[in-house]
Design a protein that fits this description.
Length: 385
């Protein structure tokens, strides 16, 4: 295993509240009682507001050919560029072709989504309109739209190239996770439904008409959510300590993946066989003392393995495009890569500033990490002579 460690003279203060749960809950929701399942229902239309904002976008340049990030190339990964968001980092997403990176967050003032040209490192625009923290961003599979989920109780959908806000979807309370289906026909939004009673839900919409399709009930908050690559499953939940595997056709829960603590992220392997969940393995006085990844068999819903020994809660997980590597980032700054053949650690790094927010480009050639300091780092494979 290769380990890289950066030393810094800065005093690092570890946040004790989950970035995603901080919108409404302290870490104490980790011990909330597990609630029973509820039944998905069809829903009436949730209103949206079309808006046009001034264009601030400059089209990106072409991205040169890059070596895929895999278990056999991970030893050559390195940081090649960084950006500064200044305020806390909450969410990151690449366009399908990997040419543009979107980053968002905000603590007090800057709730805009920032766009960067990955090739030359230049800012190419901002998407404004949110009045609260942006917890999640996602590009559509065809690259034409960007969607965000915010504490201002809205999900917004942009034509990001022109800077036009296409739709605003309104919800009962703040929403924290968002995902397009692999075919781009459906948008799923997860968040709070009724805070006093700790009800939450995932709402799905047709991207052709923006009409609502399903409302899938959950509890506490939706802190983790993703579609399986084949589009058959929607995997999500998290703050209730449950992660459900729902059938996308009708919202039926097929499996419940039970955890000891809340889950902050979930990823599904390219072959749809395995799910990895980012969580906390153990706590002391409601503080996470060891982060962990739990690996699940999606054909049976059974736990395969726990990957532990992170200094703090694991906030992000991703599989490499070929499925050979599992990448994880924890709140303290640790970035670790496992081989999925045996789940042995192959690489570790801990640059200062934190790496808890992490995303892999859809083609698997670029990695972006960020954290509470607002600094965003881009990683790629650099072949050595």
């Amino acid at each position: 295993m290769k380990r890289i460690k950066w030393l810094s003279g800065l005093i690092v203060i570890t946040l004790s509240v989950s970035l995603l749960d901080a919108c409404s809950f302290s870490i104490q929701v980790l011990t909330a009682p597990v609630a029973p399942k509820a039944t998905p229902t069809s829903i009436q239309a949730i209103p949206f507001t079309p808006t046009v904002v001034p264009s601030t976008i400059i089209l990106p340049s072409a991205t040169p050919t890059l070596v895929p990030i895999r278990v056999d190339t991970i030893q050559m990964i390195t940081i090649f560029r960084s950006f500064d968001l200044k305020e806390g980092m909450r969410s990151l997403a690449f366009t399908p072709d990997g040419t543009v990176l979107a980053a968002a967050g905000g603590n007090t003032e800057d709730f805009a989504i920032h766009l960067w040209d990955v090739t030359n490192g230049q800012a190419i625009g901002t998407l404004s309109g949110n009045s609260g923290i942006v917890w999640g961003v996602a590009f559509s599979p065809n690259g034409q739209m960007l969607a965000s989920a915010s504490s201002d109780k809205t999900a917004k959908i942009w034509d990001w190239r022109s800077g036009t806000l296409l739709k605003t979807l309104n919800f009962p309370d703040q929403v924290g996770s968002i995902s397009f289906s692999p075919d781009g026909q459906t948008l799923a939004v997860g968040g709070l439904d009724d805070l006093p009673s700790l009800r939450a839900a995932i709402w799905t919409f047709s991207t052709g008409s923006w009409k609502p399709l399903l409302k899938i009930p959950e509890y506490v908050n939706i802190t983790a959510m993703t579609y399986s690559p084949n589009g058959r499953w929607l995997v999500g939940g998290g703050a209730s300590r449950n992660v459900q595997v729902w059938r996308t056709s009708d919202g039926t829960s097929v499996f419940t993946l039970n955890h000891a603590h809340q889950v902050l992220d979930v990823a599904v392997s390219p072959d749809n066989s395995t799910a990895a969940t980012a969580t906390c393995g153990s706590t002391l006085n409601d503080q996470c003392t060891e982060g962990s990844i739990w690996v699940w068999d999606l054909s049976t819903g059974k736990l395969i393995k726990k990957l532990a020994n992170f200094p703090n809660v694991v906030e992000s997980v991703a599989f490499s495009a070929d499925g050979s590597a599992l990448i994880a980032a924890s709140r303290d700054g640790t970035l670790r890569v496992y081989a999925t053949s045996n789940y042995e650690s192959q690489f570790e790094a801990d640059p200062p500033g934190g790496n808890g927010v992490m995303t892999l480009s859809p083609d698997g050639r670029l990695l972006a990490t960020g954290g509470a300091t607002g600094e965003v780092r881009l990683w790629k494979i650099v072949e050595r002579p």
